Amino acid sequence: MTAESSATARTTVTAGPRAGVALGALGVLAFSMSLPATRVAVHTLDPWFVAFGRAVGAALLGWAYLRLTGAPRPTRDQWRRLAVVALGVVVGFPLFTSLALTTQTSAHGAVVVTVLPAMTAVFAVLRAGERPPPLFWLAGAAGLALVLAFLAVGGSISGPLSFADVFLLAAVVLCGLGYAEGGRLARELGGARTICWALLLSLPVTVPVTAVAALVDRPHGGVAAWSGFGYLTVVSMFLGFFAWYAGLARGGIARVGQIQLVQPVLTLLWSALLLGEAVTPGALVVAGAVLACVVLIQRTRGGAVPARAPGGPPSAGRDGAGHAGDVRVADEVS
Q1: CB 168 within 8 A of CB 112
Q2: What is the pLDDT at residue 328?
Q3: Model-level pTM greater than 0.85?
Q4: Three-class secondary structure assignment of the chain
């Protein structure tokens, strides 16, 4: 196969910020049900099976999509970047949230995930080489400190930091990395292809772990558990990323990333409505305070100066305010 045939065809088009916001909102709506669905699934299913089995199922859907659309193979550099995406959103976030939610509620997890937009912004800065003002770092540190204080002394838990809390924080860090890298890569591959290739790249890890988990603890569960698993496979791990990565590619990480601010609030509502979990006043207060910090982060990012990416040209499609203009995206964005 020649280099020309293996590289994804690109074209310069005018990105649609409004379309990006709409797609991003659709992705956030899909992701907001992930923690409640995980909580239901791991109630009777092994968390390792839930975390990796959903990725295997989504990879099969991704393989079918790529075959039907005749998608060309990524380049060597794109494969390396896809490995970062896979580490963050295919392996890291599903695994650590599944482990955490065996002992914690999804409402509690929603409070921790409130800091995810800040993590996404931090990794977008690191990966894109932007130079944010000091206020950016102060706001990010304040948000993280609020979450840690909530976990340690009050809110929806009591007592010292637990392993479940550490798992949730690890999930947030890895997910932020996967979101930022995937958003950049989607400008070249498209939102759908980015997650599909990342899922296929993960199969050498996800298949063996799923098989071992199934052999050690034979999967058994009721309708609710398998429904939760099905949602995680089809929506959270597959279709949701079609919209989310396409939104980041069209509207820009800085602008569309702000939509994540509503995700923890939606998760708290789903947890209360579907699972009957108590949402304490302390959890709402801390979530609101962290959201304020993240809003400040997003506003300070608007003044950041995009820098030349390592080994590549200056980021296209960005003005000084971080808005998307003419960007290079795949012929098929979503």
Answers
A1: yes
A2: 43
A3: no
A4: CCHHHHCCCEEEEECCHHHHHHHHHHHHHHHCCHHHHHHHHCCCCCHHHHHHHHHHHHHHHHHHHHHHHCCCCCCHHHHHHHHHHHHHHHHHHHHHHHHHCCCCCHHHHHHHHCCHHHHHHHHHHHHHCCECCHHHHHHHHHHHHHHHHHHHHCCCCCCCCCHHHHHHHHHHHHHHHHHHHHHHHHHHHCHHHHHHHHHHHCHHHHHHHHHHHHHHCCCCCCHHHHHHHHHHHHHHHHHHHHHHHHHHHHHCHHHHHHHHHHHHHHHHHHHHHHHCCCCCHHHHHHHHHHHHHHHHHHHHHCCCECCECCCCCECCCECCCCCECEEEEECCCC
Alpha-carbon gap, residue 220 to 60, rounded angstroms: 22
Q: Angle at CA 83, nearest 5°, toward 82 and 84?
A: 90
Portion of the chain with pLDDT greater than 90, in percent: 40
pLDDT digits (tens, 9 = 90+) for 8-48: 444 333 445 678 878 988 998 999 899 899 989 998 999 99
Mean pLDDT of 265-279: 78
Rounded distance, CA 12 to CA 166, Å?
42
CA distance 173 to 96: 11
Please, are residues 195 and 238 in contact by the beta-carbon 8 Å criterion? Answer: yes
